[in-house]
C-alpha cells in the first residue's frame, strides 16, 4: 500500500474533483 498523497489538501482536491464529476454525470 503506497501513500503518496498523505496531505489533507490533496485528499480534498481529489474529493472535490470526484464530486464534481459525479454531479456532472447526474446532471445536477
UniProtKB/TrEMBL annotation:
It comes from the Eukaryota. This is Uncharacterized protein. It comes from Zea mays (Maize).
Amino acid at each position: 500500500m503506497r501513500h503518496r498523497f498523505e496531505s489533507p489538501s490533496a485528499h480534498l482536491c481529489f474529493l472535490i474533483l470526484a464530486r464534481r464529476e459525479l454531479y456532472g454525470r447526474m446532471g445536477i
